[in-house]
UniProtKB/TrEMBL annotation:
PANTHER family reported in the protein's UniProt record: ENDONUCLEASE 8 (PTHR42697)
InterPro entries, per database record: FPG_cat, FPG_N, H2TH_FPG, Ribosomal_uS13-like_H2TH, Znf_DNA_glyclase/AP_lyase
Keywords: DNA damage, DNA repair, DNA-binding, Endonuclease, Glycosidase, Hydrolase, Lyase, Metal-binding, Multifunctional enzyme, Nuclease, Zinc, Zinc-finger
Species in which this protein is naturally found: Franzmannia qiaohouensis
Domain FPG-type: 239-273
Name the record gives this protein: DNA-(apurinic or apyrimidinic site) lyase
Family: Belongs to the FPG family.
Length: 273
């Protein structure tokens, strides 16, 4: 399932195609939304934002289209008259004079009168800040982790909790803990000041790198030789995630696979103590 950086990249791709271009056709697969489709024709999209794994398409009249890809949803961008050759079920299409953005295989879609209405959305109202969209700083992270709600929880479960920070998924959790040098059972309240500061910097930096590099979190110095050898992306993409039994790039210890919060987690027993 795509994580926050992948959704943010999808939002940016949609924005480049749709922002400030009048819509000439809008189509929804759901009757309750299709009744509003004609009122969106002629509208310009002002922005396409992400919040965790949700997309928020903002129209010039203030309305906001919420969509969540869930497990199988996928946006496809294409020329107006050349729809994708796919067996997926079309759920939504936004069409400009030249191009279209089509959402397939997703069912969590809703249209809201204004941004304020999103405060009551059953999914969004439970989300914490998005590390990318909401311009979170390392200092913001450390302050939030030390609040009574989160300070006593193990990091292995906390980093996946979308109430804390939205958009962190399984590969990001393993990578963040590795680069911070922390075991998943550590709690924010138990961290020394330098550990907490490093965790905040790593969380913000790892998310930003994954966004810039399309999901790659490994350090350039560690992956360059693997890339030059022609090895596939899955081999050099991450520092520890999905590398159980392989040597750590930093210390040479064998990467271990564990289950934390019912999800697989990878760590280095040499670097994370």
């Amino acid at each position: 399932m795509p994580e926050g950086p992948e959704i943010r990249r999808a939002a940016d791709r949609l924005g480049k195609l749709l922002v400030d271009r009048p819509l000439i056709e809008v189509w929804f697969a759901f009757p309750e939304l299709q009744r509003s489709a004609a009122t969106l024709v002629g509208q310009r999209i002002r922005a396409v934002d992400s919040w965790g794994k949700a997309l928020l398409t903002r129209f010039e009249d203030g309305r906001v289209l919420y969509s969540h890809n869930q497990l199988y949803g996928r946006w496809m961008l294409h020329a107006r008259d050349l729809p994708p050759n796919t067996t997926r079920s079309l759920r939504l299409r936004l069409t400009t004079e030249t191009h279209a953005a089509s959402l397939y295989s997703a069912s969590d879609i809703s249209l809201h009168d204004d941004a304020a209405a999103l405060d009551e959305h059953p999914f969004l109202r439970r989300l914490g800040p998005d590390l990318l969209t909401h311009r979170v700083t390392p200092e913001d992270v450390t302050a939030r982790l030390l609040t009574p709600r989160f300070r006593r929880r193990g990091l292995g479960g906390l980093l996946l909790d979308q109430h804390c920070y939205a958009g962190i998924g399984n590969y990001l959790r393993s990578e963040m803990l590795f680069f911070a040098g922390l075991l998943p059972q550590r709690r924010p309240e138990s961290l020394a000041e330098d550990e907490l500061q490093r965790l905040g910097e790593v969380m913000v930096g790892t998310m930003a790198q994954a966004f810039r590099e399309a999901g790659v979190t490994n350090r350039p110095a560690w992956r360059e030789a693997l890339q030059q050898a022609g090895l596939p992306r899955r081999v050099w993409r991450h520092a520890v995630f999905d590398r159980a039994g392989e040597s750590c790039h930093a210390c040479g210890a064998f990467i271990e696979k564990h289950s934390v919060a019912s999800r697989r987690l990878y760590l280095c027993p040499g670097c994370q103590r």
